[in-house]
Amino acid sequence: MKAPAFDYVSVDSVSEAIAMRAAHGEDAIYLAGGHSVVPSLTLRLQAPSILIDISKIAELSGVELIDGWLRIGAMTRHVEVLKHPLIAKHAPLLAAAAPYVAHPAIRNRGTIGGSVALADPASEFPAMMLAIRAELEVVGPEGVRRIAADDFFQDIYETAMAPGEILRSILVPPLKEGTVFAFDELARRRGDYALVGAGLQLVVKEGVVKAADIALFSVGHTPTRARNAQAAVMGKQLDADAIAAAQSALSDDLDLSDEPQMPASIKLHLARVLLGRLLGKLGELT
Length: 286
Ligand SMILES: Cc1cc2nc3c(=O)[nH]c(=O)nc-3n(C[C@H](O)[C@H](O)[C@H](O)COP(=O)(O)OP(=O)(O)OC[C@H]3O[C@@H](n4cnc5c(N)ncnc54)[C@H](O)[C@@H]3O)c2cc1C
Fold this sequence. Notes:
single chain, alpha+beta, Uridine Diphospho-n-acetylenolpyruvylglucosamine Reductase, domain 2, Uridine Diphospho-n-acetylenolpyruvylglucosamine Reductase, domain 3, Enolase-like, domain 1, 3 domains, 5-stranded antiparallel sheet, 14 strands, binds flavin-adenine dinucleotide, oxidoreductase, oxidoreductase activity, FAD binding
């Protein structure tokens, strides 16, 4: 299928983009890497009258350290997340997740901002925003605001951004001493969207878990923080008992329902297997 006809405009600044969006209302959508927008147009899932290309806005690019926080511009491509030395050092969980996002051709164009703004519950980066406790910096007609990742994802493809707001940056807090991390997903084929995936960032001191951030994806309507599993490992050594307790707690964390290709019970089983593997790996490291 071909996309319905639309106009296209490329803008140089966030303020220009916001003004253009305000002039056209909901008929306009922002275009970043285009790897979700373009398929949705050709499948005729949406039919905007105008695409506002934000990919050349300098303000949306760059990766830098500011007062100990890592700022990742929204237009940072998936491939840069995979390779950027500052991301490897200050947000290693994102670098670990990046190779699992689609295939190289898509990683060359797709952007982390596009992925987070789209809020697909099956995507890797939105869930990792929870695990790294990122804050999302958004700009709109009313100015700039920061939204904690835990408050950002509200439903399938729905975020706390108001219509017309632009995600400018992902802000990553400094890593604490003793931070360890692990990422993995189960997929039918490498590069497919995951059946279930998880990223963990823990602080472990003298073998004891002092902080735990565990996020899963492809397990419901939003990226999901596994609060009960986190509580199960807090203050514990990552031994078989603690891992089993975390796996067991997942049933209280996940609101699963039967899907055409997978009953909820199988998905819960896969999530438990994955969590057990990742906690086991971290247990061996610490
Ligand atoms: C075959 C295929 C396989 C894929 N597999 C995976 C996968 O395994 N895992 C995965 O996570 N993704 C996957 N993707 C999606 C891909 O990673 C997209 O590139 C990404 O989700 C969206 O980023 P984008 O820059 O292309 O955004 P776009 O497609 O340009 O935009 C996506 C949405 O976000 C909005 N938007 C974009 N940037 C901003 C911003 N800065 N502020 C506000 N709104 C914005 C747009 O208006 C649009 O609604 C796949 C895509 C394809 C085509």
